[in-house]
Each structure stands twice: as structure tokens, then as C-alpha cells.
Amino acid sequence: MRPEAIYPDLAGRSALVTGGADGIGKAIVEALARQKAKVAFLDLDRERGEALAARLIGEGAEVSFHPVDLRDIAATQAAIAAACAVCGPFAIGVNNAGHDERHGFDDVTPDYWDDRFAVNLRPLMFVAQALAPDMRGLGGGSLINLSSTSWMKGAPGLIAYATAKSAVLGFTRSLARELGAEGIRVNCVTPGWVVTERQRRLWITPEKWAAAQQAQAIKGEIMSEDIAAMVLFLASDVSRMCTGQNFIVDAGTV
């Protein structure tokens, strides 16, 4: 585990994380739990989600898992309501869920294009919409959206994903203006190539890894915990005057 700052104001606060069963989302859930926040997380993967929740509860954390397909907005809204009933009103929301499935430009159909947006972009709006009343009632809160440097680098084989992730920044900046007067901060965290279990299994080759290291100003693996550390900073009131911004964690690649 990497060294981690302690943010006392996060203790006892309720946080919702989407896509929290694996990868970066899992690291965010774990990091918030270590801060003694009350954490609810959503994910399509019931098996991994239940296992993570059981482990963290066994370690004394206040965590609940709510299985849902974020493409189903009505089901997502219901899951958030169920999570709120467990945790209380949410002061923190992390729109982490996404899926970087590779695809060829010539193979993209209208249905596939729409599905990639339904996974990687559309839920952000409706999760934020569901959480905003809680944050208004609390007098403020923090919404954190995850993007990707893939769109900044023009990565091939990801055009639908990269386009959706580029829109996350525009969404963040606009929503920050919509909600700022109510004390709700909205920021974007943009990871570089994070070395998750899935990335190791599917995409990392010696050639790609060498190219990544050449591009990074700081050498070494970018870990899920590095992204979670930025999320904690933005969730805490220590970042109280940060909103509408894009915080890039990519070891200096872009």
C-alpha cells in the first residue's frame, strides 16, 4: 500500500462510487473506507462487488454494495436511493464507472456507438442528478468524474471510448457552474495508463510497456492507488476552492 494522507473531515461522511468492484473503483472504495467514510458502491459485477464489501465489512468498514447496470437509468436511480437508505445523504459522489473495450473504426455501428456512451458518459449526468439533492441538503458536497488521457493522446482503437471520455471534461466544467453557488464542487480526475489486473491481462506487452515508460516523465507503474489519492484530496474540504478543474495523474505523459 502506498503512503496515504489522512483527511479527518471524511470520517463519517457518506460517499457513492460507481464501478467500485474492481480496478480503480475498488481502490477508491478501499481508500474512502480507510478514511472511515460510509461508502456505497455500484457495479455490474455482483460476485466481485459482494466479495469486496464482505472483506471491508469484516475489517470494520461501513460499506454497502448495490449491483446495477448503469445503462439502466431507472435501476441506477433506484440503487442510489437504496444506498442512501443505508448510508444517509451523500456528501461525495465518484463517477468512476467506464469500460475501455477496444474497437476498430470501421467496425463501429450506431448501436455500438450508443452503447459506449451509455456506459462511459450518460450515467454521469443521472448519478449527479440523483446526488445533488443530498448535497444541497447538506450545504455542499463534492462530485468527482473520471476521464482518461486516451482522448488527449488520440489513442487508436478506442474512438468511441475516447470521445465519451473527452466529453467528461466538458460535463465537469458545465456542472461546476450549475452547482457551485450551492457549495457543490465538481472536478475531473484524468488517469494515464493505470496498471490494473485487467490491463496486465489484456493489453500490456513488453513493447507497449517500453513505449509507455519512454513517454512518462516519472518512470514506473501508475497504480490505482495513485488515482484514489487524488480522489481523496478532491473529496475532502482541503480542496474547498477547487472546482471545474481537470486533475491529470499520468506521470507526465501528456
Can you give me a brief rundown of this structure?
The protein is α/β, with parallel strands linked by helices. It is built from ten helices and seven strands.
For this structure, what is the CATH homologous superfamily? NAD(P)-binding Rossmann-like Domain
**Number of contiguous helices:** 10
CATH architecture: 3-Layer(aba) Sandwich
Q: Tell me the fraction of residues in β-strands, as a range.
A: 15-25%
Secondary structure category: alpha/beta
Q: Mind summarizing the main beta sheet?
A: 7 strands, parallel
Total number of distinct structural domains = 1
The Rg value, from CA coordinates, equals 17 Å
Strand order of the biggest β-sheet: 3-2-1-4-5-6-7
**Averaged pLDDT, please?**
95
- Give the number of DSSP strands: 7
CATH class: Alpha Beta
Provide key terms for this protein.
48% helix; Rossmann fold; 7-stranded parallel beta sheet; 10 helices; 254 residues
Could you describe the 3D structure shown?
The model has no long low-confidence stretch (mean pLDDT about 95). This protein has helices spanning about 25-35, 45-60, 75-85, 110-120, 120-140, 150-155, 160-180, 195-200, 205-215, 225-235; strands at about 15-20, 40-45, 60-65, 90-95, 140-145, 185-190, 245-250. With about 250 residues, it is of the alpha/beta class. It is globular, with a radius of gyration of 17 Å. The protein contains ten helices and seven strands. The protein has a seven-stranded parallel beta sheet, sandwiched between helices. The protein has a single domain, classed as NAD(P)-binding Rossmann-like Domain (Rossmann fold).
